[in-house]
């Protein structure tokens, strides 16, 4: 098993067709079929099931593909850097939760592209629970996430602490603009994602500390859907102010600060602890830190540095 065989494997899986994969790899289809057969013989099991429209990975194929993706990505980045005299190159994959993506992602993408044009940046959006799973599975080089647990097999670097606010539809709360005790906020009808996503875990832990049973109905997994339901007056939610700044400015949503106590969550930058980062990954991490510092310093992100 060598890197060329793993690249062939990933290309076949991506194309779902040996003939299309051969075209992409600029090789003859019989040669690619033989390469796949040698790989299957080596691992002792079929990696793809053939059907009328192409091929589909078997269970063994999916397992090997998941392991091969980070290996091929790291090798490709290293190969490109060596050819380019250590200039960052290749591909780097970043996972980011929706709320952080709204504020941070445009700045990071623009700055990183300008400084490192030879690196292909791939961004995957998902709640923190998914970002953690993808990091642990090797699908990501870096992940931005909320409330990662130490000892999770990830190297963690704190970015900021971000207070949450109660988000409601205009006119649904006569006390809009006045602080609200957290315990009272938790007894309102809240629209939140399900566990184990970071926001929900944070809310459940706060409710347990206060001895309150939160009213969560419905559970919704997408940030746009959550904000849309709240705007229709179907419930409230808890989010950082930056996540709803546009809607508040347009009059579609309102917010109230939380007190006695407040509720905040820590944003961290994470990478797999057992993997040496490529130069491209290191440069992306630096860009994230620099842009967070800039957004905090200019007041564009209502948060503060971890104490």
UniProtKB/TrEMBL annotation:
Q: Which InterPro entries match?
A: HTH-type_LysR_regulators, LysR_HTH_N, LysR_subst-bd, WH-like_DNA-bd_sf, WH_DNA-bd_sf
Q: Which domain of life is it from?
A: Bacteria
Q: Which Pfam families match?
A: HTH_1, LysR_substrate
Recorded GO CC terms: cytosol
Residues in domain HTH lysR-type? 1-58
* Keywords from the named record: DNA-binding, Transcription, Transcription regulation
Instruction: Show the GO MF annotations.
Output: DNA binding; DNA-binding transcription factor activity
Which family does this protein fall into? Belongs to the LysR transcriptional regulatory family.
Can you name this protein?
LysR family transcriptional regulator, nitrogen assimilation regulatory protein
Give the organism's phylogenetic lineage. Bacteria, Pseudomonadati, Pseudomonadota, Alphaproteobacteria, Rhodospirillales
């Amino acid at each position: 098993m060598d890197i060329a065989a793993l690249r062939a494997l990933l290309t076949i899986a991506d194309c779902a067709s040996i003939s299309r994969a051969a075209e992409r790899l600029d090789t003859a289809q019989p040669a690619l079929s033989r390469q796949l057969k040698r790989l299957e013989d080596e691992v002792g099991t079929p990696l793809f099931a053939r059907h009328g429209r192409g091929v589909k990975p078997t269970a063994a194929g999916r397992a090997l593909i998941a392991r091969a993706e980070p290996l091929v990505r790291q090798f490709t980045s290293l190969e490109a850097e060596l050819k380019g005299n250590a200039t960052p190159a290749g591909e780097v994959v970043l996972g980011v939760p929706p709320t952080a993506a709204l504020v941070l992602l445009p700045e990071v993408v623009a700055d990183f592209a300008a400084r490192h044009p030879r690196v292909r940046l791939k961004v995957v959006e998902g709640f923190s629970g998914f970002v953690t799973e993808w990091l642990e599975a090797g699908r990501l080089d870096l992940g931005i996430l909320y409330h990662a647990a130490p000892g999770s097999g990830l190297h963690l670097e704190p970015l900021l602490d971000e207070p949450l606010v109660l988000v409601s539809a205009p006119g649904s709360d006569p006390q809009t603009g006045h602080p609200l005790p957290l315990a009272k906020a938790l007894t309102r009808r809240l629209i939140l994602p399900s566990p184990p996503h970071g926001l929900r875990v944070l809310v459940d832990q706060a409710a347990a500390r206060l001895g309150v049973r939160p009213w969560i109905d419905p559970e919704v997994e997408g940030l746009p859907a959550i904000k849309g339901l709240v705007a229709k007056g179907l419930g409230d939610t808890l989010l950082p102010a930056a996540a709803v700044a546009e809607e508040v400015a347009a009059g579609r949503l309102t917010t109230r600060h939380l007190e006695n106590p407040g509720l905040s969550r820590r944003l961290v930058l994470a990478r797999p602890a057992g993997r040496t980062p490529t130069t491209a990954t290191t440069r992306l991490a630096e860009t994230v830190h620099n842009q967070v510092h800039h957004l905090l310093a200019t007041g564009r992100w209502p948060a503060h540095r971890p104490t």
